[in-house]
Amino acid sequence: MKKRIVIKVGTHVITEGGKLCAPRFEKLVEFLSLIMEKYEVILVSSGAVATGFSKIQLDKKILSNKQALAAIGQPYLIQYYNEFLQKYKKFGAQILLVSDDFDSRKRTKAARDAVNTLLKNGILPIINENDTTAVEELVFGDNDQLSAHVTHFFDAELLVILSDIDGYYDTDPKEDKNAKLILHVDAIDESRLCKNINTGSEFGTGGIVTKLKAADFLLKNGRSMFLASGFDLSDAKNFILEGKHSGGTLFASRK
Ligand code: ADP
Q1: Would you state the pLDDT for residue 197?
Q2: What is the pLDDT of residue 206?
Q3: What's the 191 CA to ligand 1 centre distance in angstroms?
Q4: Model confidence at 18: pLDDT above 90
Q5: Strands 224-229, 249-251: parallel, antiparallel or unpaired by DSSP?
Q6: Whose CA is nearest to atom 13 of ligand 1?
Q7: Would you kindly state where each structural domain of the chain is located, as residue ranges?
């Protein structure tokens, strides 16, 4: 049986200047189709709001505008994935979830059954948060935590986060030139989980803290996470396809 993994891709990886970045998007889809040969792959993709904004420039600071932009952008995003996947004779299916879906056993099971059926048929489930119905108290707010829940509740072993950063450093590499990449983390210090969120741009909502929270959740549930660059996919490729840890941070308990 194929192992199951979840790939999460951040807004920065697939967009540039608020628009979809075609060359990077193409490389990502090529990478997805390659790993689909060896694994059951679930994709969690951000980028709906940015894609919506490239169609109509509504003020993103207003929540209802952001929800509208997600509603506008989401179908285009799925369309782009399917256009590019076609080259590899594959296609994807859209699943929109809110955090509440993981609080109800019945709803989690319904979603898991659908995901299992898609995977059995070689289809790529493309998951995003349902921004239109997500109310403030129930919102994940960033796809890092959503993808950690997807990994755990849909029985995947590993979550791979493809980010604008190539791993987890001892200090913020954008502020400190001497920051050192940490290759392996087996436990997250509680104090690291409550720092101010530092996100890379106006479209991003994650930052390193949400990634550490995702890793913490997975480590506590006996699963692993790999944080690597989504701009240069070689570390992710080496790790997933060759079992070689050339770069990127692995969050996993030591055996
Ligand atoms: P994404 O769009 O993939 O979700 P973000 O841009 O939201 O990614 O988060 C990654 C950013 O977090 C990095 O670009 C980096 O500036 C910042 N960051 C802060 N502290 C660290 C750290 N210790 N290690 C790595 N990145 C960090």
Answers
A1: 46
A2: 54
A3: 17
A4: no
A5: antiparallel
A6: 165
A7: 4-251
Among 165, 171, 189, 229, name the best residue to mutate to test ligand 1's pocket (greatest count of ligand atoms within 8 A of Cβ): 165
Measured between alpha carbons, how far apart are the two ends of the chain, in Å?
A: 23
CB 176 within 8 A of CB 121: no
Range 4-251 has CATH code 3.40.1160.10? yes
What pLDDT score was predicted for residue 17?
A: 85
pTM here is: 0.93
CA of 89 relative to ligand 1 center, distance in Å: 34
- For residue 163, what pLDDT band results from cuts at 50, 70 and 90? very high
Beta strand ranges found along the chain (DSSP E): 3-9, 15-16, 19-20, 39-45, 92-97, 124-129, 158-163, 168-169, 181-182, 184-185, 224-229, 249-251
Helices 143-153/208-220 angle, 10° precision: 20
Tokens representing residue 72 in the block: 């506008």
